[in-house]
């Protein structure tokens, strides 16, 4: 709606006639409604004032007058009292009703006197069953301070008892029974703690929330990988439990014992279906016919160096190795030893190697920390840093020592991990 | 016939023990220049030697090159067969001597380097130190074993011939015409293996006489002791692990019960 342009003199504000007077603010122009926009359609509404109906369920007998629009149909007589629209909200709570006798019989409680119980019921009724309000209004001069949970528990127990009295359990309907159950299972302590927890949750600070979320994610990660960690650990444990030899290898040092061993092995081999050992002329047993087809002086597989001790010097009584491997020079066993010829080695590295390396190389690990750890363990065990005599026996002994050192290192690593895990679990269990 | 690929003996290796070490004396000492050069307090000799009862080292070792500290004139000293492979010098400081071993041509192997740290000061237990000072002789020596893996046929033949022990044997026999017989005189049977026990008369460490099977047994015994210690540690660890496993189970139950 436009403001009609006012006639002339007004907009052009007069120059201050005198500085003393405050300049007039431009007066709001009255809005002029266009007559076209509002048109009263029909007559204006009629309102009538009426008395309310008397005592429509109100306890205080309030009477009032109200305006209400006149009914257009005119069927209702103009004088009918106003129905109370809010009557239906006038709900009263159900309260357990008991008399003195019932009380004496079923409702006696150590901490609650009859008066107090009555007072509680009364307040409940007045406050419409809203517990915060009830707690507020409750003030019994003689009694101790009651928390909301206390009041609730007493009230519910009373209600439950009354309910049970009125309708014995067997004839309760399902909803009634559920109600009864709820009433009797009220646990004040639990409720109190639950509410406290909720309050704590409500009021905690942001950094606590963050910390909690981080810890939860950590826990989740651990739980997820728990299975894999467990299997890894089991594997490591199995690996570390290496089998210990029951027998001593050193009982086979004499030549007699060696020949005996050789014959035992040969006999055992013969029993098997597919023989591994081929006989030579030296074993003293008659060879079975299927075997005789093979050339006699071919390579009689000597027992693995693994079953024999590393002392190669005492091979004298064994079947001769002289005719094997096409040695360019035929040598007797003694000569082999004198000249330091070692045979039947597989996996020989090419070229020239040194035995003292076998005593020094294993001590060095990929990282310096590992090397240091190995060095401390060896020192603690009493192994000198420089072993000046690298004979095969010494080398073998050193090898077994090194394998134990590695086993020890692995176990220590495992121990660290396990201790960590134990700490976590202890913390968990302690909570 | 390719000259480089001679047949190799499969699945065989030849081992030879030899000694690398050094002797040191406080000057003045016989055998060393007197008066000693400026600031030089010790005279030393670094060497590569065979076992006293072993085969001739020159069968497989043709040349040895000792690389001394760069402050020496002619830091690189080369000794060829047969001469004793030794370098004698005076000095005051310890350093690592790089030793380059050149093998016999039949072996077809390249030269290898070993290092030896020259020890000039007394070392070891109190008793050892006292003895070293008394005798004015410090020896730092170790046994080294060279292993020729899958040697060539020629090399094999050289290294398994009886002639290697000729240097230990004494010529006996008639004069011209007859081939001299070589007879071995001495306590220890010549062999490439370690002698059974330390040779009594050939003296102490310096001449390598102390290397013997007896010593080997001592070393092995010592290592076995060490192994026992390790076993004890392992047992301890294992017990700890059992304990922890039990504890973890307990805690697991406690947590699950909550």
Précis, in short:
The complex is a heterodimer of chains A (431) and B (258). By secondary structure, chain A is mainly alpha-helical.
Give the secondary structure arrangement, pairings included.
The complex is a heterodimer of chains A (431) and B (258).
Chain A: E1 47-51, E2 65-69, H1 100-106, H2 114-126, H3 131-137, H4 148-166, H5 174-184, H6 188-203, H7 206-240, H8 255-271, H9 289-292, H10 333-338, E3 341-343, E4 352-354, H11 357-360, H12 368-381, H13 392-430
Antiparallel strand pairs in A: 1-2
Helix pairs in contact in A: 4-5, 4-6
Chain B: E1 12-26, E2 42-50, E3 61-67, E4 76-80, E5 85-91, E6 96-103, E7 112-117, H1 126-135, E8 138-149, H2 153-159, E9 170-172, E10 181-183, H3 213-257
Antiparallel strand pairs in B: 1-2, 1-8, 2-5, 3-4, 3-6, 6-7, 9-10
Helix content of chain B: 10-25%
Class by SSE composition of chain A: mainly alpha
Strand content of chain B: 25-35%
**Name of the CATH homologous superfamily of the domain at 13-155 in chain B:** YEATS domain
Termini gap of chain A: 74 Å
The arrangement of helices and strands of chain A along the chain is EEHHHHHHHHHHEEHHH
CATH secondary-structure class of the domain at 100-202 in chain A: Mainly Alpha
Indicate the overall shape of chain B: extended
Uncertain ranges of chain B? 174-181, 199-208
**What is the C-alpha radius of gyration of chain A, as a whole number of Å?**
54 Å
Going by helix content, strand content and strand pairing, the class of chain B is alpha+beta
Tell me the name of the CATH homologous superfamily of the domain at 100-202 in chain A: Homeodomain-like
The major β-sheet of chain B equals: 4 strands, antiparallel
Corresponding CATH architecture of the domain at 13-155 in chain B: Sandwich
Q: How many strands, what sense, and barrel or not for the largest sheet of chain A?
A: 2 strands, antiparallel
Instruction: Trace the largest sheet of chain A across and list its strands.
Output: 1-2
Query: What is the arithmetic mean of pLDDT of chain B?
Result: 77
Number of strands of chain A: 4
| Cα distance spanning the termini of chain B | 84 Å
Number of helices of chain A: 13
């Amino acid at each position: 709606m436009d403001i009609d342009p006012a006639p002339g003199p007004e907009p052009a504000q007069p120059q201050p006639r005198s500085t003393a007077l405050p300049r007039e603010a431009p007066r709001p122009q009255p809005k002029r409604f266009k007559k076209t926009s509002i048109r009263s359609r029909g007559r204006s509404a009629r309102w009538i004032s009426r008395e309310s109906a008397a005592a429509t369920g109100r306890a205080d007998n309030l009477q009032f007058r109200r305006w209400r629009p006149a009914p257009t149909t005119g069927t209702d007589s103009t004088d009918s009292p106003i129905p109370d629209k809010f009557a239906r909200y006038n709900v009263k709570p159900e309260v357990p009703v008991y008399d003195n006798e019932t009380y004496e019989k079923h409702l006696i409680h150590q901490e609650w006197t009859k008066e107090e119980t009555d007072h509680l019921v009364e307040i409940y009724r007045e406050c419409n069953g809203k517990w915060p309000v009830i707690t507020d209004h409750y003030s019994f001069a003689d009694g101790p301070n009651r928390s909301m949970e206390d009041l609730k528990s007493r009230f519910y127990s009373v209600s439950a008892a009354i309910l049970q009295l009125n309708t014995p359990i067997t004839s309760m309907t399902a909803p009634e029974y559920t109600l009864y159950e709820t009433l009797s299972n009220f646990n004040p302590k639990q409720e109190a703690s639950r509410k406290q927890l909720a309050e704590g949750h409500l009021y905690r600070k942001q950094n606590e929330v963050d910390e909690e979320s981080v810890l939860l994610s950590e826990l989740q990660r651990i739980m997820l990988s728990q299975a894999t960690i467990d299997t890894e650990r089991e594997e490591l444990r199995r690996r570390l439990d290496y089998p210990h030899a029951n027998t001593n290898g050193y009982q086979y040092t004499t030549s007699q014992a060696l020949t005996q061993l050789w014959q035992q092995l040969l006999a055992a081999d013969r029993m098997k279906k597919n023989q591994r050992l081929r006989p030579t002329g030296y074993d003293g047993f008659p060879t079975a016919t299927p075997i005789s087809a093979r050339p006699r002086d071919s390579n009689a597989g000597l027992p693995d160096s693994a079953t024999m001790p590393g002392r190669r010097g005492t091979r004298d009584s064994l079947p001769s190795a002289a005719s094997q491997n096409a040695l360019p020079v035929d040598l007797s066993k003694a000569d082999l030893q004198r000249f330091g010829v070692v045979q039947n080695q597989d996996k020989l590295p090419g070229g020239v190697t040194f035995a003292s390396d076998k005593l020094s190389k294993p001590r060095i690990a990929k990282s310096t920390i590992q090397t240091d750890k190995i060095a401390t363990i060896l020192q603690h065990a009493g192994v000198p840093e420089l072993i000046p005599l690298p004979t095969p026996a010494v080398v073998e002994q050193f090898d077994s020592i090194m394998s134990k050192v590695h086993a020890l290192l692995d176990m220590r690593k495992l121990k660290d991990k396990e201790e960590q895990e134990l700490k976590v679990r202890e913390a968990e269990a302690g909570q | 016939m390719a000259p480089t690929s001679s047949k190799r003996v499969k699945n065989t290796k030849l081992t030879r023990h030899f000694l690398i070490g050094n002797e040191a004396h406080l000057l003045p000492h016989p055998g060393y220049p007197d008066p000693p050069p400026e600031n030089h307090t010790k005279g030393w000799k670094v060497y590569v030697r065979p076992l006293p009862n072993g085969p001739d080292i020159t069968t497989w070792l043709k040349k040895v090159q000792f690389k001394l500290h760069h402050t020496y004139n002619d830091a690189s000293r080369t000794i060829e067969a047969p001469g004793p492979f030794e370098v004698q010098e005076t000095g005051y400081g310890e350093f690592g001597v790089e030793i380059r071993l050149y093998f016999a041509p039949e072996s077809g192997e390249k030269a290898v380097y070993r290092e030896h740290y020259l020890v000039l000061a007394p070392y070891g237990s109190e008793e050892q130190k006292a003895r070293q000072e008394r005798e004015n002789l410090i020896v730092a020596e170790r046994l080294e074993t060279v292993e020729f893996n899958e040697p060539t046929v020629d090399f094999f033949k050289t290294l398994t011939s009886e002639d290697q022990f000729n240097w230990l044997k004494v010529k006996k026999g008639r004069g011209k015409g007859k081939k001299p017989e070589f007879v071995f005189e001495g306590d220890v049977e010549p062999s490439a293996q370690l002698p059974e026990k330390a040779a009594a008369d050939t003296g102490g460490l310096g001449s390598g006489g102390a290397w013997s099977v007896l010593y080997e047994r001592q070393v092995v015994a010592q290592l076995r002791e060490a192994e026992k210690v390790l076993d004890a540690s392992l047992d301890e660890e294992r017990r700890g692990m059992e304990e922890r496993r039990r504890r973890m189970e307990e805690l697991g139950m406690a947590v699950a019960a909550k």
